[in-house]
Amino acid sequence: MLKIRDALINEGEWIREQRVNAYGEHEKKIPKRHWDTLKKSILSDTDEQVDVELLVAELNEEVVGSVVLYPAKSDAYEGLIDSLNYPELRMLAVAPHVRNKGIGEALVNECIRRAKAKGFQFIGLHTADFMNSAMRLYERMGFVRLPQFDFEPADDGIIVKAYRKTIE
């Protein structure tokens, strides 16, 4: 049975390592400099900032995925973009051995539910073309492009694309 819950305080470091493992499939697809930038970002402790929510997916009592929900007007990207007036989900990661079971979608839906409960009309995220399956998931779930909030973190031509979903 799949359960989405807040991460426990002692799980943070392990979750960051699990993210690196989940994102590892992209290492060979992108330039080393970009991978190094991405890896630094997913290992950072920005998920410990005040009001940031670190969520995990637990399947049969095993943590198999995670996502970070940043509050509106936070510095989710460490100065790379202006703060946005809606929450933003980041670092969605699902362990490779349990993909295609709806875990990523369940984590995103929980972020949407939490943003809606706080009265927000929108929720955002950023992703890149090399994350094909994530982009398909987000577009299928109704996220739409907002190119004015794109950025290029490693000055290597890889654009991190902004998306936003209207919460109904």
Unreliable residue stretches: none
| Tally of DSSP helical segments | 4
Quote the CATH topology: Aminopeptidase
Strand percent estimate: 25-35%
* Mean of all residue-level pLDDT scores: 92
Shape: globular
Query: What is the total domain count?
Result: 1
The largest sheet, given as strand count, sense and whether it forms a barrel, is: 7 strands, mixed
* CATH-defined superfamily: Gcn5-related N-acetyltransferase (GNAT)
The count of DSSP E runs of length 2 or more, i.e. the number of strands, is 7
Structural class: alpha+beta
Structure overview:
- The protein has one domain (2-119): Gcn5-related N-acetyltransferase (GNAT) (Aminopeptidase, 3-Layer(aba) Sandwich), CATH 3.40.630.30.
- The two termini are 27 Å apart.
- The protein is globular, with a radius of gyration of 15 Å.
- It is an alpha+beta fold and 168 residues long.
- The relative contact order is 0.17.
- Helix content is 29%, strand content 26%.
- Strand 2 (53-59) and strand 3 (62-70) form a beta hairpin.
- The chain has helices at residues 12-23, 32-43, 103-117, 132-140, and strands at 2-6, 53-59, 62-70, 88-94, 122-128, 144-145, 160-166.
- A 7-stranded mixed sheet has the order 1-2-3-4-5-7-6.
